[in-house]
Amino acid sequence: MPRRQGRRLDTGSFVDNSGTMETSEAIAAFSAVAQHTRLDVFRLLVRHEPGGLASGDIARALDVPRNTMSSHLAILQQAGLVEGIRKGRSVIYRARLAAVREIVRFLLQDCCNGQPALCAPILEDLAANPAVKSRCCC
Fold first, then answer.
1. Fewer beta carbons within 10 Å, N or C terminal of the chain?
2. Which segments of the chain are extended strands (E)?
3. Report field, pTM of the whole predicted structure over 0.70
């Protein structure tokens, strides 16, 4: 019997039709990760890109009851930070790295009053940081 492809659940929308993030989406994203467990979940999923993790594995790794983890994942998914893909009886969750890029873009879009050269040190620090470089998947 041939294997079925994974079925994408809800990916959430993080940008408007113009391709830019709206303030309300940014607030939803920041609110979602403003809770300790959800921040830990999101960081764990970023570390496990591109393969993602099953919800049960996430719950075990963070020592959180499965029903509680389901609630946390739903909030992250609703904020557009993670996506769930059904594979058989499991749901594999992945961080939406495009959402991370949009958050950074949102934060820096008005950087330095229209003088992007003034923001260059921030980007250079990120690019030069060995901890970021060695673990970065995007």
1. N
2. 7-8, 53-54, 82-87, 90-95
3. yes
